[in-house]
């Protein structure tokens, strides 16, 4: 049983006893003791039901709804006193007034709850409500970086610290990928959901699912850039194009692939190391091996050493869009 239910049961008992007490003290309000029991029990049950329905309704949403209700009420009052309905009789005026306050109060609450921090800054310029105890370090994750999974390793190694933010629309995109008919896409989506579960279970950082959305933006990338700016968060991605769009809009971002390339060990011409030759190269006589970080090493005259370790000497490096390709010669050439 959840810990809150004992409090609810105690509250229900107090309401029931209170209803009986009212029937004894004010018999003009509640005439019979049994009726008082029922009234108290019914009132307590209604309040507990309302409490259950509001489960998950945050203080931020409640504050926004209250602000929207006040704003809607003010607008309805301004329309009421504007003189538009001065020729209506008293009964019609009462109905018009009730409709105005209900309609604008409801619309104000809905718009306020659906809005985000950026929208409130337009209504109250230059005012930002933020914690003064410590600065927020929000890390906004996109679909590609979640599927990649290296972000979890970086967090566990404490290279990255802060609160992870995953927008609801990114979660929907992962679910859509996981339900795809294409097995490759489906596997990527399921890996992304598994990575999210791993991040939630980790103790090194906190992860939040953010409900903010921008329905007017059809593309997920545009939504991410706008949300990063609204939250003052740093965007983490593996998408090169998304990173450049964020950079053009002055949104801070980190590309995990660029970070990995920056952390690769530096290899210089003339350096000697051992490597396993795993396959033949494109040109005749070449062998190919890979360093621990995935860097490809093309070795001249090493085709006959496939499956064996070889000592090689770096002769040149080639920078490509996919990374660095190392060209090397055998340190001890094979006799003809």
- The total count of strands amounts to 10
Described by its quaternary structure, the protein is single chain
Number of spatially distinct domains? 4
β-strand amount: 15-25%
CATH topology of the largest domain: Rossmann fold
Which CATH architecture of the largest domain would you pick? 3-Layer(aba) Sandwich
Q: SSE order in H/E notation?
A: HHHHHEHHEHHEHEHEHEEEEE
Put simply, the count of helices is: 12
Structural category is: alpha/beta
Tell me the name of the CATH homologous superfamily of the largest domain: 5'-nuclease
Mean pLDDT: 81
Shape: elongated
- The side-by-side strand order for the widest beta sheet comes to 3-2-1-4-5
Features of the shown structure:
336 residues; alpha/beta; Rossmann fold; 12 helices; 10 strands; 50% helix; elongated
């Amino acid at each position: 049983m959840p810990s809150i239910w004992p409090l609810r049961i105690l509250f229900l008992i107090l309401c029931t006893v209170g209803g009986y007490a009212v029937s004894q003290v004010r018999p003009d309000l509640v005439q019979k003791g049994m009726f008082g029991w029922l009234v108290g029990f019914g009132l307590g049950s209604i309040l507990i039901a309302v409490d259950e329905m509001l489960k998950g309704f945050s203080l931020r949403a409640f504050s926004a709804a209250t602000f929207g209700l006040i704003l809607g009420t003010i607008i309805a009052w301004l329309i009421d006193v504007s003189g538009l309905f001065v020729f209506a009789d008293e009964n019609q005026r009462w109905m018009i007034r009730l409709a105005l306050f209900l309609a604008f109060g409801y619309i104000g609450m809905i718009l306020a709850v659906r809005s985000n921090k950026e929208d409130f800054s337009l209504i109250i310029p230059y005012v930002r409500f933020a914690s003064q105890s410590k600065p927020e370090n929000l890390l906004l994750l996109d679909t590609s970086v979640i599927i990649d999974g290296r972000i979890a390793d970086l967090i566990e190694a404490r290279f990255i610290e802060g609160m992870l933010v995953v927008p609801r629309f990114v979660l929907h995109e992962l679910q859509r990928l996981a339900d795809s008919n294409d097995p490759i896409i489906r596997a990527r989506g399921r890996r992304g959901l598994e990575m999210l579960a791993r991040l939630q279970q980790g103790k090194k950082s906190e992860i939040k699912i953010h409900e903010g959305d921008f329905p007017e933006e059809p593309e997920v990338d545009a939504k991410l850039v706008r949300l990063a700016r609204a939250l003052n968060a740093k965007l983490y991605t593996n998408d090169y194009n998304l990173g450049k769009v964020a950079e053009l809009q002055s949104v801070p971002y980190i590309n995990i692939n660029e970070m990995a390339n920056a952390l690769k060990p530096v290899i210089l011409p003339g350096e000697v190391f051992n490597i396993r030759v795993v396959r033949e190269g494109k040109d005749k006589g070449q062998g190919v091996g890979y360093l621990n970080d995935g860097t490809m090493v093309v070795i001249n005259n090493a085709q006959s050493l496939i499956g064996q370790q070889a000592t090689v000497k770096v002769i040149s490096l080639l920078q490509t869009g996919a990374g660095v390709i190392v060209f090397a010669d055998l340190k001890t050439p094979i006799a003809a």
